Amino acid sequence: MSLSSLTQALRSEFYVARYALGARLLIFIPSAAAAVQFMASKIADTGTAARDGLMNSVSFDDVTASNAWGHFVDGLDTGITLLFLLLVAQAAYSFSAEVENGTMRHQLIRCSSRRLIVMSKLLQLHALALMGVGILIVSSYLLSGLLWEFGPVVEDGFELISEAEIRDEITLGLRLALTPLPAAIALGLLLSVLANTATQAVVSALGITLAMDIFKGMLGDYAYYLYASFQPALIDQSYLQDVSRLVRGYSDVLIDDRVIQLNYWVPIPTLLVLVTASLIFVQTRKL
Amino acid sequence: MSTQTPALLISGLQKTYGNLDVLKGVNLTLTSGSIQGLVGLNGSGKTTTLECILGLQRFDQGEVSVLGLVPTDLCTAQGKVTAVFDSPSLNPILTVRQCLQHASLLSKQSRRHPKDLEKLLGLCQFSNFPIKTLSLGNKRRASIAHALISEPDLVIMDEPFNGLDAGGVDEVLLLIKTLNQERGTSFLLSSHQLPYLEDICSHLAILHEGKIIRSGQKSALLRSETNKVRLRTNDPVGAASALQTISGISCQPGTMDEEIWVSSDVMNAAAINSHLAEHRIPVYELATERASLGVLFRRLTQGSDS
């Protein structure tokens, strides 16, 4: 596989992505969802503050509610959860749709091998994911800073958690949350290679992702060997949700060092297995 | 490009789907600079043959060489080989212009400007229309433009005339002829539109039940066909017995009333008419059916389901 052929395949992928609605949604929907969440929280906070003002009561929760860091992490959590689902769906759509409408045949004849196309799609989806995450982080930071104030967690004038500690926790939470992302993309891509139609690929990819989310609780400790256990999900908790509590001053958040190590390492072999399977199956299927 | 080097060489190509032998040893040679027509009934294996040539399907046995490359390495030709498929196969969300620009990204070959091709194929007014909004005929024009953007040496076309109006067909035929004459581009055309193929192809091949049953230069193939005369008379039985006394003539009843088909190498329509007049058999309709690809094709594939 030559680098120039890969570059050519990537240029082709990005050219189409420029005009594809799916790619735009993937980049902007997470940020938009986070923004909607911020607005809803601000309205709720304002309502609560007005009620408390009338009742003349101030609690610890009220103080932490006005700290932007907690809202920022909530926005990231929502955005990344959506990003995972959108990415799996987009990955599942990417290959199968091109097979279905026949456009892939031109690429195969003119410039790329089957495996190169799979690799270029994998790279393109990662690039889209990075753009989505980047825009999500920047927009969430700006919007939460606009609506609330960033600061340390303080109780009775005593600083419980400094801003530097909060930033460290958020960085760790983001790292842990984003580590399973390549495996999720690879799952979508494998299903895309295997499926006969784009609809079949997208439905099965989303179905399997949600099923893993539902059933991982039944696996007990074995669930830690499933990459999906570590991704922010609709149903289950991820560490990013714990970070949200942590930066609000709750001290009951604990994460086992072993779990952190599994979070870092389990998605990697999963990614390799899924990509290898895609590269094998793509050689045998009719395009 | 040398006119002697084969642009495409297929030898003993075999392909099976489950228990069904679709291709049973296809042999075909396409000389560089020629326009080869491939005809066959539905299900005879034309599209499968093209897909095997293009590396889109694996084949069980045989050898295929496209511009000296095996089909799986076709991508290394960088746009020297392109294809027009029976379905338009273009990205429906892109406009015609974007589709052509995307096509030029797919090859390192010298490229035509998308505007030139749009003009050549009458697509200028649809330049900014998404492919999904175009009519079938215009989608076909766009897919032909897509195939020609890299100035290929070999173009493989599956049903290129489908959906095109008469004017569109003329444009495409002219374009193929021009590219073939000016650039020496070779074409492999698979179609059911036999008159168009007969008009444009230099070579023809008839694929039947997974095998090439006849192939060669068009002129040689059609020369081998005997001209037929169709006549209608009040006395078809008498006419047939009067004609069959002459050696080299055979008569067959036609499907219409009082109709006879006469095959003859020794007499033309005028002579047949004179002969029947001598026998006082009046002829009220007489026509010569020229040897054509359609006639040859029907004769060779007679009795098969179409």
Characterization of the model:
The complex is a heterodimer of chains A (287) and B (306). Helices cover 76% and strands 2% of the residues of chain A. Chain A has 287 residues and is mainly α. Chain A has one domain (3-284). The model of chain A has no long low-confidence stretch (mean pLDDT 88). By secondary structure, chain B is α/β, with parallel strands linked by helices. Helices cover 32% and strands 28% of the residues of chain B. Chain B contains ten helices and 13 strands. The chains are: A mainly alpha (287), B alpha/beta (306).
Radius of gyration of chain A: 21 Å
The low-pLDDT segments of chain A are none
Overall tally of domains of chain B = 2
Low confidence ranges of chain B: none
Quaternary form: heterodimer
Distance between the termini of chain B: 39 Å
Would you identify the CATH H-level superfamily of the largest domain in chain B?
P-loop containing nucleotide triphosphate hydrolases
| Proportion of residues in helical segments of chain A | over 70%
Calculate the mean pLDDT score of chain A and round it. Answer: 88
Count of beta strands of chain B: 13
Strand order of the largest sheet of chain A: 1-2
Give the strand order of the largest sheet of chain B, numbering strands 1, 2, ... along the chain. 5-6-7-3-8-9
> What structural category arises from helix and sheet content of chain A?
mainly alpha
User: H/E element string of chain A?
Assistant: HHHHHHEEHHHHHH
CATH topology of the largest domain in chain B: Rossmann fold
Q: Report on the biggest sheet of chain B.
A: 6 strands, mixed
Helix content of chain B: 25-40%
